[in-house]
Design brief:
Elements: E1 5-7, H1 9-26, E2 32-38, H2 42-49, E3 56-67, E4 70-79, E5 89-97, H3 101-111, E6 117-125, E7 138-142, E8 148-149, E9 165-167
Helix pairs in contact: 1-2
Bound molecules: inosinic acid.
């Protein structure tokens, strides 16, 4: 099955450079703790951290609240971080904020751990689907209500390897 390119590889990489500059400016001279939310954010994290010219402490959390194409409402932490984030500048990295449920629950979890600051960076946001409002400090692209795949995002575990973002199905 082939997919129309919705956001090209070049557009993604150009936006990542801009986001990295913003983060660099905001945390000049400081160390940051980057926490990628698995599985979807792995590719975004890998590209983003290579553009950020700051000392980075990296870890990943595996959490999901998603079954099929609908959010189920339950957050499951499959893998937690090893880093102690107390007093640290933490940036959570998500692939997409859809209803906002997953990231809100993850943010709550991190706030209990007393970081110095907690920011959210998401590659994509679907504002039309918002149920739980979340402040996105660094946003790649705002998109329409379409189910997207590629660049880390999957449908049923597939298509994560695509270097671009496509719309699932034949749109
Ligand atoms: P939320 O809790 O509804 O915000 O869902 C967020 C999670 O659902 C993301 O981290 C993705 O894993 C998944 N998700 C939401 N929309 C899409 C999509 O269009 N394509 C692939 N995964 C999605």
């Amino acid at each position: 099955m082939s997919h129309n390119i919705f956001i090209s590889k070049e557009k993604i990489q150009a936006r990542i450079k801009e986001l990295a500059l913003e983060i660099e400016r905001d945390f000049k001279g400081q160390e940051i703790v980057v926490i990628g939310v698995l599985n979807g954010a792995f590719m975004f994290v890998a590209d983003l951290i290579r553009e950020i010219n700051l000392p980075i402490n990296l870890d990943f959390i595996a959490a999901s609240s998603y079954v099929g194409t609908q959010s189920s409402g339950e957050l499951v932490i499959n893998k937690d971080i090893k880093i102690d984030v107390t007093g640290k500048n933490v940036i959570l990295i998500e692939d997409i904020v859809d209803t906002g449920l997953t990231i809100n629950k993850i943010k709550d979890l991190f706030l209990l751990r007393n970081p110095k600051s907690l920011k959210l960076c998401s590659l994509l946001h679907k504002p039309a689907r918002t149920v739980h409002h979340t402040e996105i400090d660094y946003l790649g692209f705002e998109i329409e209500d379409k189910f997207v795949i590629g660049y880390g995002l999957d449908f049923d575990g597939k298509f994560r390897e695509l270097p671009y973002i496509g719309v699932y199905g034949n749109e």
